[in-house]
Amino acid sequence: MTAGMMGGPLLFLAAGEPSGDVLGAALMAALRDETGGAARFMGVGGPAMAAEGLDSLFSQDELAVMGLVEVLPRLPRLIRRIRETAAACLAARPDALLTIDSPGFGLRVARRVRAADPAIRTIHYVAPSVWAWRPGRAKKMAAYVDHLLALLPFEPPYFTAHGMSCDFVGHPAAARPRAGDAEIAALRASLAIPPGAPVLLALPGSRLGEVRRHCGPFGAVVALLAQRLPGLRVILPTVGAVAEPVRALTQDWAAPPDILDPRGLSPAVADARKWAGFAAADAALAASGTVTLELAAAGTPMVAAYRTHPLTAQIVRRLVRVETANLVNLVAGSRVVPEFLQEYFQPPAVADALTPLFSASPERAAQAEDAARVLKALGAEGPPPALRAARSVLAALDRRRLRL
């Protein structure tokens, strides 16, 4: 703990989307453990962080938007929330501003805070993907970010080269234990899934724009699979903010999904139910993103597919420096997980890629082999990532104290 922190370090947290909420909640718990319960928190987060005691300045749902074109209609509100968050941080004068994931929100808050009060230390959790696109961001970040926490092992040099400190803390998916047989059986029983029935996990995204773009083509894939796999059942975990749109958009699927709606459940119960759903499935169709690493941790083979606004896609294609958007493929250095992006996201091709994953096929075995290598690379054999992240944060605060 840093000297002079009366009552323990005060951290202002800013998490702009559901993935950051999960990371933030685990980090809060670990920081509390590491400081003997002395750490204090304020800022912006979601339901998981609220369960850890955070009183969010406003609903995190207001910030859940992705895409260069998609953000434009909501830009005035987003700018207002960025200003309000920065102002609240400046008024609190915390020991550190800790922004979590969602760089479009968090890093803009950090930039405002640094410009107004350089004494407030700034830490960002989840190093931006400068290795994939816009490499110049790392140099620009050095002007307003002191310390980074990286989820991928190859990321720190991209940032330390510009004067920031950066620790690889591991990816939380790597440390997540798989659901046990009893948990899987309980979920299947609660959904009345017969023994031996083929089960597809559908993951169309956690943002409204994503589910609107994906539920149609996902439904077309389900229709094709239902013809090939008699008795097909579909499990669809979602987040509360999009649960009702997901229900409306999937009610006409050939195999209407069993929706795992977290509303009304504690974060711990909802999380356990989600992971039981992951493990209960034979295969998954997922929007590309962090969820692909969670599927690897659950042992669920997958196909990734994603569509964004066509103009956003054109812009991104001019900027990206990697050939895959799938984190499992990226860390493994392979293309073992089939990936269908934009115009290549055609339901017949996706269904063809998914079909062999429902049996003991070479494709299924290859994914299992790569998943094991990926999880090891992401820190599965070390301390829990949240604990490593908490220790990294506290060490960064101590380094700041020693320089004062």
What is the CATH first-level class name of the largest domain? Answer: Alpha Beta
Which runs of at least 5 residues are low in confidence (pLDDT < 50)? 1-5
Number of strands: 12
Helix content: 40-55%
**Class computed from helices, strands and strand pairing:** alpha/beta
CATH level-two architecture of the largest domain: 3-Layer(aba) Sandwich
Average the pLDDT over all residues and give the rounded result.
Answer: 89
- Count structural domains: 2
Q: Could you explain how this protein is built, in words?
A:
- There is one protein chain.
- This protein is α/β, with parallel strands linked by helices and 404 residues long.
- It folds into two domains: 10-170 and 381-403, Glycogen Phosphorylase B (Rossmann fold); 177-377, Glycogen Phosphorylase B (Rossmann fold).
- Helix content is 47%, strand content 13%.
- It has 17 helices and twelve strands.
- The strands form two sheets. Strands 2-1-3-4-5-6 form a six-stranded parallel β-sheet, with helices on both faces. A six-stranded parallel β-sheet has the order 9-8-7-10-11-12, with helices on both faces.
- Strand 7, helix 9 (208-228) and strand 8 form a beta-alpha-beta unit.
- Helix 3 (75-92) crosses helix 4, helix 8 (181-190) crosses helix 11 and helix 9 runs parallel beside helix 10.
- The radius of gyration is 21 Å and the shape is globular.
- Mean pLDDT is 89; it is low at 1-5.
